[in-house]
Amino acid sequence: MAASQAIAEFIKALGKEKVLTDREDLLCYSYDATPDVPGALPEAVVMPENTAEVAQVIKIAGRYRVPVYPRGAGTNLSGGTVPVRGGIVLSLLKMNKILEIDADNLIAVVQPGVVNQALNDALAPYGVFYPPDPGSAATATMGGNVAECSGGLRGLKYGVTKDYVQGLEVVLADGTVVRLGGKTVKNVAGYDLVKLFVGSEGTLGIITEITVRLLPVPESRCSMLAVFADLEAAGNAVSDIIRHKVIPATLEILDKVTIRTVEDYLHIGLPVEAEAILLVETDGIKEVVEKEKEVLRRVLEKHGALVRIAAGEQERDQLWAGRRAALPALARVKPTTVLEDATVPRSQVTRMLAAIREIGQKYNVLIGNFGHAGDGNLHPTILTDARNEEEMERVHRAVEEIFKKALELGGTLSGEHGIGLAKKRFLPWQVGPEGLALMKKIKRALDPLNILNPGKFVDSADLDENGEKREGEGETGR
Amino acid sequence: MAASQAIAEFIKALGKEKVLTDREDLLCYSYDATPDVPGALPEAVVMPENTAEVAQVIKIAGRYRVPVYPRGAGTNLSGGTVPVRGGIVLSLLKMNKILEIDADNLIAVVQPGVVNQALNDALAPYGVFYPPDPGSAATATMGGNVAECSGGLRGLKYGVTKDYVQGLEVVLADGTVVRLGGKTVKNVAGYDLVKLFVGSEGTLGIITEITVRLLPVPESRCSMLAVFADLEAAGNAVSDIIRHKVIPATLEILDKVTIRTVEDYLHIGLPVEAEAILLVETDGIKEVVEKEKEVLRRVLEKHGALVRIAAGEQERDQLWAGRRAALPALARVKPTTVLEDATVPRSQVTRMLAAIREIGQKYNVLIGNFGHAGDGNLHPTILTDARNEEEMERVHRAVEEIFKKALELGGTLSGEHGIGLAKKRFLPWQVGPEGLALMKKIKRALDPLNILNPGKFVDSADLDENGEKREGEGETGR
């Protein structure tokens, strides 16, 4: 069998200790943080230590047509790293060095296995930081962040991963190593392939080195909690803040279900009678923070909120610990947590919040809702039990209706989690058959043997020689 | 002949008034703002009024294998819009409507023929603006800005075109219309094709609608002029400003040749004895501007500058008029102006400035140097005469050496002008044969008939069926 020959070659090339084949090991790499997606056991886990080893692995995989599933910490929420056709998991965790911190040029160069938080810890003494901060920052790797184009809490003011990646080293599907982009902010030497690889979910190449842009750490910040007796009022306040020309660093919402669950978990004094809370942080020089604080307070109170300004760093940290506990707290309530990231234009947040509440009632499923309200990126979280088939059927219908509503309001299926396996069948709803065909043409051009993360949102297996759809292999239609 | 049949079809589809074939008209579309690049007369100029007409044109062009050269205002500086194999020029100037201003979501939607400055004029009453501001903002179109990924004076703090384009409607090479991206900042539904089309220089599709992100207009600003008796000191001050955690909105340099030429042209009292000046502007809320102004003054003076703060809006406008006159003023000196945009990491600006001066002396050519020092994006401008063959030979060798030096210092061939025709042969120096092969694979996948802007930096004509290089059609090697 091809795979066993390939495994022998991986061992020959990398050494036995970098190729795992024990069933217990394989099991650990057969799933990721995503619930409710089908997976399969990989045939081996390969752990290269440098770019040359990655290139060797890819060349061997190509020769034997072995699927390659690249993986960082496996924290992703779209099934992006789950193997579906056997093959190998390519773990980048051994490539975990920070290669360069160039504070003068506001640049850092890292290997893909570096953890997001570890980078920021290393940057702190230089007074600079890497802004994208996914909820999983403490464990997620930079390679995974780039492959999924992670967002996070600071997206409203600071943008997301793609806004900070300036250069990449990538091993292509034929084992060729390319270096794309570089250290300059301005760079228009041909197609912007850096941005094509950011968010490509491991389907176009293996990212082996990342050059990111940094920013000076803001000298001051201020957090506040706004308590609302009405969900819509909270949604309206979000739009009104931006209308007052204030762009907070973070602007997060937690609904009643989430507030109660977090309070029950952490006992930090959250207002359990509230219908919603907004957590807002502004940062910058002291004078800006003072000024924006007053504008924020005024706007929030205008919409009926009780506003509490965090008195010191300790109270601030407690507030944000509460926000970061939203997902783990919700996940404790029921065995299965289906977390979505439907995203709408900011002005539609109120309508989306109301729609999600109604959809929960309609399908009689328990939905906790929280997320990055400032950029319209909500995380409706359905608390359920995968063993209850009847309920799961209702969950699936509720999720579909949430996606349809987000698209109807001018939004997207996914703000920051990616498509992967979990949302594969919904993608044509958003990008149309033409958009999907275009993505598949690119996939096929770069990975003609379809060995890189096959079976995911863009799978060229069903395209003929001309990149056209094969007869009888239709996509899920609109 | 295929072209004449195609022209008959264009006329049938769009009407005679939208298809120009008179020699006088064709002549006007046979060149753009780039000096010293070969061009050819197009066989027709086609001026569609809407997306459906663009799609019709592209389908006809595909049927007859007619090259299509898309064009906005023709202000580009890399030969990007110059026809090289006959065919048609596709002018997007009739598609010049602003379709939507959505201030609540900080979004505008425009057709490609809208002029950059016209968009900002229309946005002004809403208190928002579109940050990218190429030197040609008063005439360049948004379609051209997107196709070339224009930069400009505000790049240091605000970034460039790709940082602001969130959605596109594109007519593909087969006439299919796709809508990519959308109104949300966070959006990870498949490959980020929006960013692939930004900067693709008309080689992958025709951009027919653009959704851009806007920002609130800063409430206050302050400009200053720093006069240096030493070029290196000016370069060092640039790095030191960022080291003090101040990121000015603009940070421009003019060298002695440029200062004298501008003063000779405008008589605005520039210091003609200076070796260099820096023009710096900070913006934001009043308190930020006050604070940053003092930091800037201190740092600039530390490096030996005489600093003059612009007293009011009139003095400010005069300073920036001086900067914007740099290119037209230099262009008056000699018949031919070869303007480059080699870009280096900020910390290398001093070395690059010195290198350019030495290269000018070595080849005995007159170089005025100015540009966006803050993001390392310099505009060495060689003043020459295309009719003087011997001098042009020295100009070409000087340009080559400037490119080599920029790459050696970790920079790029082009910060904001693009590759087009003018830098086609240098591109492999930067991206390597692997990088160029990758770009060509994408080109071939999206435009298999090679009808979109053929002959430019990525020309799939020399690839075989598998996207591999044909025998004997080597690229310029490293």
Structural commentary:
The structure is a homodimer of 478-residue chains. By secondary structure, chain A is an alpha+beta fold. Chain A has 5 domains: 2-91, Uridine Diphospho-n-acetylenolpyruvylglucosamine Reductase, domain 2 (2-Layer Sandwich); 98-216, Uridine Diphospho-n-acetylenolpyruvylglucosamine Reductase, domain 3 (2-Layer Sandwich), CATH 3.30.465; 220-328, Alpha-Beta Plaits (2-Layer Sandwich); 332-408, Alpha-Beta Plaits, CATH 3.30.70; 431-478, no CATH class. Helix content of chain A is 36%, strand content 19%. Chain A is built from 15 helices and 18 strands. The first copy, chain A, has helices at 2-14, 23-28, 51-63, 116-123, 142-148, 155-158, 193-197, 231-243, 256-266, 286-302, 313-324, 326-333, 349-362, 389-408, 427-446; strands spanning 19-20, 44-46, 68-71, 88-91, 98-102, 107-110, 128-129, 165-171, 177-181, 206-213, 215-216, 220-228, 250-255, 276-284, 306-309, 336-339, 366-372, 377-384. Chain A has a 7-stranded antiparallel beta sheet, sandwiched between helices. In chain A, helix 8 packs antiparallel against helix 13, helix 9 packs across helix 12 (326-333) and helix 13 packs antiparallel against helix 14 (389-408). The first copy, chain A, starts with a helix and ends in a 32-residue tail after the last helix.
